[in-house]
Amino acid sequence: MENHLAYGYVRVSSRDQNEDRQMIAMRALGIPDKRIIIDKQSGKDFERPGYQRLLRRLRANDLLVIKSLDRLGRNYQEVQEQWRLLTKTKHVRLQVLDMPLLNTGDRKDLTQELISDIVLQLLSYVAQTERDMIRQRQAEGIAAARERGVRFGRPRKAKPENYREILDLYRNRCITAKGAAESLGVCYPTFHRWYRGERG
Over 70: is that where the pLDDT of 106 sits? Predict the structure, then answer.
């Protein structure tokens, strides 16, 4: 029985991708089908039962082959988390078919550790850059929407048809502000805001 096993992980969208090319690459490396784990999930929910099953099977010094880094996560932060889990916690060797420079398999321990550290630092930097860019795009989008007159937050409550009538009663001191709010079916702060608007 082998002490260290080789596994392949294939992830494709259930709608628009086919796993054949990844499977061919895995088989060419001599990985048997029973150790090639496939997930067919959309990028939206990213549920990966196959990957979770794979994590339970992997042991220290096993080799995991993936086509590219994006097989490990939806964004760089997720990729970073999975790379750390695989290389630092589970001590698995990784082979990335699209980026051989990142391979930690078939290396001396010191070189393998160095490569893992460099990749983690790079992924951490890119993940932070990606988060900053997303926040910047969101802020720019909000600013542009506000310039177009788009309002954010809860829509303001429309004034009831009898608002003028109740307002006159309040102005003539026939009812209190609390009574006016109750008659209009709104809370006191809403009525007070409407009244302030009338005065302004």
Answer: no
- In terms of Cα–Cα distance, which of 32, 135, 121 is closest to 84? 121
For residues 118 and 177, give the distance between their C-alpha atoms in angstroms, rounded to a whole number.
66
Q: Give every CB contact of residue 48 below 8 A, 6+ residues apart in sequence.
A: 11, 39, 41
Judge contact between 42 and 14, C-beta under 8 A: yes
187: number of CA atoms within 13 Å, CB side? Answer: 4
3-state secondary structure 51-80: HHHHHHHCCCCCEEEECCHHHCCCCHHHHH
Of the residues 13, 14, 116, 124, only one is catalytic, namely 13
Q: What is the mean pLDDT of the chain?
A: 82
Q: Verify whether residue 13 is a known catalytic residue.
A: yes
The pairs formed by 83-86 with CB atoms below 8 angstroms and a separation of 24 or more are 83/116, 83/119, 83/120, 83/123, 84/120, 85/55, 86/58
Please tell me the least confidently modeled range out of 70-79, 100-109, 122-131, 165-174: 100-109
The DSSP-derived string for 110-168 is HHHHHHHHHHHHHHHHHHHHHHHHHHHHHHHHHHHHHHTT---SSPPPPPPTTHHHHHH
Query: Among candidates 69, 99, 108, which has minimal Cα distance to 86?
Result: 69
Question: How long, in residues, is the chain?
Answer: 200
pTM over 0.85: no
> What H or E segment, with its residue span, contains residue 25?
helix 20-28
* CB 171 within 8 Å of CB 177: no
